[in-house]
């Protein structure tokens, strides 16, 4: 039965995309020679549309801005938008369509790790470039992919440090949705906490299915775990949709941020827009960007973005900033290389530095990840974040976590002559464990 | 700052207050003679807008004995303490944004641009501590009780003198028992008291019988006399036994609550699938439409009639019923009536309808979650014994049962109900008796859809209001209807409650993921054994 549904959905998706392609082809005939095509691979329907639609709009916004500034290499940019419909195999199909048929120079896309893994072989085979803008579990570095979201050490570990130092937390609940990002992040965090002297009985790990909506038992368990006399905090890797009922239940059971603070890695301004935030005041989130960052660059960006979307309440968030950084890096690298040829751009990208929206600069490192500041924010009544802590400098991504057995000896360096995403420093061989 | 330093500060504050209380008759007169104490230093500290300074200033303010202190602390808690100008000055933002002097509460002549003093969790705790300490001597009995509970939670030995001073003057029995309990909580861990005193404290705390008492009892020092340890161990064992029983009851309550949600989600399907036999994949989207109706109603109320917010759900329920009911009739008339008896085509067609509805909502309202607020009577929780009951969940259980019995009454007692039963039991016979079967089909489908819409109003209170809302309930709904017995409303009720309770009893042992899998396996095995579910309809009706 399920097969039939996917099939039906795929057919519907194909029909839609076909129509979209026709429309695009019709409009683009005259200028086909002078444009550089930019692919956008974000779900516009299905479960992930809630998060990914904004990123599609962001790329369209950046393309418009860049064209207004004269385009790239004297040519206009043209966005090609496809809808992989939150369907992982369809992501690969759509990626192939973008690269092989539409001949895009670069693709901005994916949100979930499983969608990224699904398109990887396509990007390798057809040798194209993917910019991936979402915080993720690390343990990967590919030649064709540039990761502009945070690795665990650029989000999770500074957040835990903040709670330890500023809130004196000694007992930890690691709560997450049951898939690869929370599982890997929690494994890293567990190892990190133990290295800091936290005992096993002071760590509670809990996983829930996607879209979990009945949190009564788990919140009661957290409350029980937190009443052992030591300061307790929840580190939440709960995925988007399940957060609203989770926070509602916390509010219902009277757990306040001053008693048991929750620090979340997947809750940003967009997610909070759907919740009554009054009971959540004081709960935390760790990101590399908040809309409330008080610098002129950010204010200017928000103003232009709200004008573009014709909505003066439209919020900005961290994956948007990562998309913006990735886009600007690609433009700069293309101009540096003087061509959109994938091999040359991939080499040119390493070392490119562009301003981020929190008043500093982010650089593309040889491991294809970028340097980022880490910000800790407390939820305010208006659904924005009050930034309570900011790392003094930029943090370099650890794509292979030093806290995991399989990956602690691995490094990634895509500069010649090493050109390897998983070089094992112990054996001195490329393609060590972890792959 | 470490928690020890924070405790120390809190202790200092309480000591100072104890002195204040002790010297109250003289102190008040003296303060008046000498004029209000000088608090310019902490006020200046507040304008630096650094958390450390704010926290220190709060401590100093509470110690100062200034009559303005309480007002300033309250203003800070409410985000109305602002600063601005050069050099920076502190103001309290009054009604209509007017800036008041924090000491005199008189409006200031010239108002500079101001920013609120920032607050984080640490500062919020300091505010609570300052408020708690200030209110041990508050004239309001409720506040004194709160303060005593706060002191009991902090279990700080240095607070003992202040607490005992307050206790000696206390006349309200409720406040007195709270203060006694707080005192006992502190004494249990204190060095240098007699075993008899400690045993008395253990007994007092043990009588509370809750989770907090357990944590306190576990802190009896190792140096305590053996008879004290024995008393504590007995009390702990007693509480644990007691809590295990309450825990079971709590799980059953959670189960009923989950069951009521399942019931709400499934009850509309019990009509469209159970009674009519339409495999209705768009059922979840009807629930979603109901939730969005609630959102629209609340939006209108927010912008035009803010006073009606508390009854927004009551307004939304009939509107959601009518709206989704009409959509249901429309779907039946335009699509489903051509597909009766062709299960596979119906399944695909309704699946398509569900995708269309989802994408339509996504286009109109956007892909992100919409905020549906909870009216005040649905917020908060209360306790019966050790059983924590949240008001929202309680109302959802009540609502689901109301809907169930209303539906049952409609089918049993009304003419349209009679016709529905007649048509589903024997269509040709019903037609020959003069019943317009086409019209009854449309009404039945409309009724099922309308009920799904009403369920959406309730589910908007506990789940995301997003285009995907319906998808998460469709599988569970079919599970409940099939498990309960197709075509039997009582089966749906019992099935939903059974699945809810079983799920919640399994969850503590197996975890949420495994619990759900285990439940599915159990249901599959059950269906193997009894293919027609819990309450199988007997006779010919099912084949009609």
What does this structure look like?
Chain B: Keywords: Amino-acid transport, Cell membrane, Membrane, Signal, Transmembrane, Transmembrane helix, Transport. Chain B: Belongs to the binding-protein-dependent transport system permease family. LivHM subfamily. Chain B: It is found in: Cell membrane. The complex is a heterodimer of chains A (435) and B (544). With 435 residues, chain A is α/β, with parallel strands linked by helices. Chain A has two domains: 2-150 and 317-363, Response regulator (Rossmann fold, 3-Layer(aba) Sandwich), CATH 3.40.50.2300; 153-292 and 373-390, Response regulator (Rossmann fold). Chain A contains twelve helices and 17 strands. A seven-stranded mixed β-sheet of chain A has the order 7-6-8-9-10-13-14, sandwiched between helices. A five-stranded parallel β-sheet of chain A has the order 2-1-3-4-5, sandwiched between helices. The radius of gyration of chain A is 22 Å and the shape is globular. Chain A starts with a helix and ends in a 5-residue tail after the last strand. Chain B contains 21 helices and six strands. Chain B has a domain at 246-543: Orthogonal Bundle (ABC transporter involved in vitamin B12 uptake, BtuC), CATH 1.10.3470. Chain B is flat, with a radius of gyration of 31 Å. The termini of chain B are far apart. Chain B has helices spanning 3-22, 24-34, 40-46, 51-64, 69-77, 121-135, 141-154, 160-169, 173-188, 195-206, 211-217, 226-275, 283-304, 312-334, 343-365, 391-413, 415-425, 427-432, 437-459, 471-484, 489-529; strands at 81-84, 89-93, 99-100, 114-116, 381-384, 387-390. With 544 residues, chain B is mainly alpha-helical. In chain B, β2 (89-93) and β3 (99-100) form a beta hairpin. Chain B is 68% helix and 4% strand. In chain B, α12 (226-275) runs antiparallel to α19 (437-459) and α14 packs antiparallel against α19. At the A-B interface, α1, α2, β7, α7 and α8 of A face α6, α11, α12, α15 and α21 of B.
